[in-house]
Amino acid sequence: MAGTDRSTPEKFDTFGPFIITKGGIVIWLHSPTTNRKTSKTQKRIRGILKELPPFCTDFFRGIEPRTSARTRLAYAYDLKTFFDFLKQANPELKSKKLRDLPLSFWTKSN
Q1: pTM (two decimals)
Q2: What per-residue confidence (pLDDT) applies to 5?
């Protein structure tokens, strides 16, 4: 390409979890603290999913590549609140565990 000086390095190079800038400064992208927080968040998500209907696990598996752990945790809390409301509002659900109800229960029409 005309006018491009290949001897000038790029602004930065990426190597795994950190960036080395042109000046040689290392910037960590994933600190150990961030990894611990993500791990704790994932454990909380798994705990909530144990209470939700099984098909919710498939939903979370599907959105995992496109969302952060904190977003999935917020979704898990929202779904838990929604299903708790349904359980309180529907007399048919009061004595049952949400985890035990198949998808067919949720899709049947009266």
Answers
A1: 0.63
A2: 45
